[in-house]
Amino acid sequence: MLRNVGSNWVLTVLTVLVSYLLTPFVVHSLGREGYGTWTLVNAMTGYLGLVTLGVPMACMRFVAQHVSLKEWTKANQTIGTCAGLYLMLGGAALVIGGGLWVAFLFYDIPASYRADAYLAFGMMVLYVGLSFFSLLPEGIMFAHHDFVPRNLVRISGVLLRLGLTFALLRYRPSLSSLAAIQLIGLAFDFFTSLTIIRLRYTNLRIDLRLFDWATLRRVLSFSLFVLLMAAGARLSFETDALVIGSMLGVAFIPAYSFANSLVVYLVEFIVGIAAVVSPMATALSSQSRDEELQRMYLKWSKAALSITIAAGLFLIVLGPRFIGWWIGPEYEEPSGSVLLPLMLSCFVFLPARGVAVPILMGLGKARIPTITFLVAGVANLVMSALLARPYGLFGVAIGTAIPNAIFGLIVIAETCRELNLSMFSYGRYVLPRATVGALPMLALLVWFKAALGVSTFAGLATAGAAMVIVFGFIWVLFVYRDDPYVDVWSPIVRFRGWSRA
């Protein structure tokens, strides 16, 4: 399991690094208003992803269940049914996208970007509509716990987009060029993944003739809850750009977007755990291995919190200065006011989103997390809109942070209840040592900021490296010392023996 999670983390780290390279280049190529317009295009067309109705997770769950029991006929029937459903949903997305394109016309887009923005919007609608069917190979590979080959394909796609972005924007800096890169990357990802499936899984096939209405009803009955979950996620992390664009202007979007992107990449890093936990929870539940489920929940919750603390403290203390170096000093203060509330909420939100939610989804207990996430997303939209004008970007961030933190508490409690685990037992294992272990890291980062005044890349990198070293020592010697579920010493002893040999 650690190998699969690790491959997800490698992909996320590479994606973050590529984003850090590309974002300043894209901002300077398009200008602040151009980048804000591109962010707005992605925020609006991103809502088309909800048209999938949660089918990807439902497909993965049922295929994983059939594969674990070696029910190949039922697995193929599920795959064929989902393939037909993806085609229908992709067509629906194109139709709905036309309506969103009309709504996009009402935004105050700068005249110099207007024609290009309309073209890019149409291309992104096409991209989202075509991307639905490309989700099928990913679901099949995840159901087999084959995260490593799937992530190798996605890593190749990230590098392809990196090269194309530098090449095309130098030749033709435009929003439509960015949209064309997304379409090219999608085609590469789909056909490469499809080839791997045909070579690796001889018992499975994608055959539309196996479409089955009874299977469709079963998939949709579960996917409805996943749809609500996706809607809540979209409202929580993508709506803010729409609120800012309509109430403060597109020129204010980049400052929020830069800070929010750091948080979103941390979320994706933690969700790398979720992608593995969900099918594993399905398999363990199908085989009635309840104690292993409890152990997995506790172990990975503590890991998720530990990683969130390490990254979160750095972003809270030195994140604004990193943005000032990365994009420009004029963004340090406004982006910093966004980072603080968003990251504080993540200390509760991410262990829930990365571990508790996928376990509940894998168990088929989707009602509470999905409805709660949807309510949190709606609360985020309302609070952000109310706080935007009086408090600016900070008010929008507060409107996002509070609902997400409440969501995390509710979902953690619900998961404990489903696994017959008390909140006291959960808190006793996950919280105390991780919290105390964070204090030396916080002191170190504050020293780098206040005493040394780091602001250059070398200073920020040194602070980050020092924090990682301190993190490693504290977590090995204190946080995970004598841990009942994680043995950190055996790998160290084996490594020492190998190095001596």
Structure description:
The protein is mostly helical and about 500 residues long. The chain folds into 2 domains: about 1-220, no CATH class; about 240-485, no CATH class. The protein has helices at about 1-30, 30-45, 55-70, 70-105, 115-145, 145-170, 175-200, 215-235, 240-245, 255-285, 290-325, 330-360, 365-420, 425-430, 430-450, 455-480, 490-500. Helix 3 packs antiparallel against helix 4. The two termini are about 30 Å apart.
SSE layout and pairing:
Elements: H1 2-30, H2 32-46, H3 55-68, H4 72-104, H5 114-143, H6 147-171, H7 175-200, H8 213-237, H9 239-247, H10 253-286, H11 290-326, H12 332-362, H13 367-418, H14 423-430, H15 432-450, H16 457-479, H17 489-500
Characteristics:
501 residues; mainly alpha; 2 domains; 17 helices; 84% helix; globular
Summarize the structure.
With 501 residues, the chain is mostly helical. Helices cover 84% and strands 0% of the residues. The longest helix has 52 residues, at 367-418.
Give the end-to-end Cα distance, rounded to a whole number of Å.
28 Å
- What summary fits the major beta sheet? none
Number of helices: 17
Please estimate the helix content: over 70%
- How much beta, percentage-wise? under 5%
* Rg measurement, Å: 23 Å
Q: Helix- and strand-based class?
A: mainly alpha
As for the number of domains, it is 2
Order of helices and strands: HHHHHHHHHHHHHHHHH
Mean pLDDT across all residues, rounded?
Answer: 83
Q: How many beta strands in the DSSP annotation?
A: 0
What kind of assembly state do the chains in view correspond to?
A: single chain
Shape: globular
Question: In terms of per-residue confidence, which ranges show pLDDT below 50 for 5 or more consecutive residues?
Answer: none
